[in-house]
């Protein structure tokens, strides 16, 4: 046999066994991809069917244009929103003069409903002689306006399931915040700041999950030392697994007598978390929420980040009272026109000055 032919055949077989062709095919099968995680829905997207109607009439009552269930959940999304709403409620309740037909507790509920959803309802409870016994608030989250004037429904879930109750005609006083889209229900003034409130909540939940998972102590342990014992590697793997969650921040000891430099490398994976602008997000969304509620930050107990502070708290309180609370009081005074009596009254606000 010709030795050159034999060598040629062996060389050809070796070329066929080389993984070069398979590697090229594998690489060619992988394509570059670009993807996104989804964007926040803009206000002017033009694809919302609710933009083509005012308030949907379901045959018995009108559905609110804004989801009251979503608003009630957003109320609890961030402390700046809920605390600002409660602060306004407390300010009004502090100046309210109690009436024999309207208890202070009932007024607090009416004020809270008007601030958080832009609607407040009060039922006129009458005796058999048609005299007013008291004015009782109906929770705005479950009250709906009917087709005709003075017609209102109360929908709720009890222990017996879903129930509907229709109030007697002209027994409900409805005070609503003004709106530019419809005249059935009111909308809260802070609705433009909901995106900021949700971002504040998302940032807080992300940071909380980040710490609960122990990821702030995360890293990649890269071992490329051939002298390492497989049993030691398995023990090291077990120790790393136990260091997550409640067992994080533990120190690990690894002994490799015949190891070489850089045989074991620790590569951090969580450094990006320190650059997620958590503090800036919390600060900016807080400012947006307080701007929508129009509450000075010093009245909310917020610590200033600059040396100059927020200014005189006395002046801020007086401006807030005259520019924000007085108009809010005038809206609630519409109840007196409906009741035919001066049921809701407020005393003048006075700062307690030290002697």
Automatic annotation (TrEMBL):
Organism field: Acinetobacter sichuanensis
Domain of life: Bacteria
Signal peptide: none
Family: Belongs to the phage portal family. PBSX subfamily.
Protein name per the record: Phage portal protein
Pfam family, one: Phage_portal
């Amino acid at each position: 046999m010709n030795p050159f032919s034999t060598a040629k055949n062996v060389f050809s077989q070796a070329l066929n066994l080389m993984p070069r062709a398979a590697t090229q095919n594998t690489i060619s099968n992988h394509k570059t991809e670009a993807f996104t995680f989804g964007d926040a829905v803009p206000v002017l997207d033009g694809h919302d069917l609710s933009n083509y109607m005012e308030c949907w009439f379901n045959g018995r009552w009108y559905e609110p244009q804004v989801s009251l269930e979503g608003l009630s959940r957003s109320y609890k999304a961030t402390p700046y929103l809920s605390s600002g709403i409660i602060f306004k409620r407390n300010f009004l309740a502090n100046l309210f003069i109690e009436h024999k037909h309207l208890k202070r507790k009932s007024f607090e509920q009416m004020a809270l409903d008007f601030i958080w959803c832009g609607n407040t309802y009060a039922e006129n409870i009458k005796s058999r002689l048609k005299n007013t016994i008291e004015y009782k608030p109906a929770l705005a989250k479950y009250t709906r306006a009917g087709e005709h004037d003075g017609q209102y429904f109360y929908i709720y879930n009890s222990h017996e399931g879903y129930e509907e109750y229709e109030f007697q005609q002209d027994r409900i006083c409805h005070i609503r915040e003004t709106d530019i889209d419809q005249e059935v229900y009111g909308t809260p003034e802070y609705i433009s700041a909901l995106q900021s409130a949700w971002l504040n909540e998302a940032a807080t939940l992300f940071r909380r999950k980040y710490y609960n998972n122990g990821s702030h102590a995360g890293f990649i342990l890269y071992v490329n030392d051939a002298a390492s014992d497989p049993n030691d590697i398995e023990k090291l793997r077990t120790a790393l697994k136990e260091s997550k969650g409640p067992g994080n921040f533990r120190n690990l000891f690894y002994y490799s007598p015949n190891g070489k430099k850089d045989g074991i490398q620790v590569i951090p994976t969580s450094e990006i978390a320190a650059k997620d602008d958590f503090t800036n997000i919390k600060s900016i969304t807080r400012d947006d929420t307080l701007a929508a509620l129009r509450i000075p930050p010093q009245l909310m107990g917020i610590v200033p980040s600059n040396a100059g502070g927020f200014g005189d708290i006395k002046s801020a309180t007086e401006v807030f009272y005259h520019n924000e609370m007085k108009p809010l009081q005038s809206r609630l005074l519409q109840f007196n026109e409906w009741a035919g009596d001066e049921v809701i009254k407020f005393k003048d606000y006075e700062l307690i000055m030290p002697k």
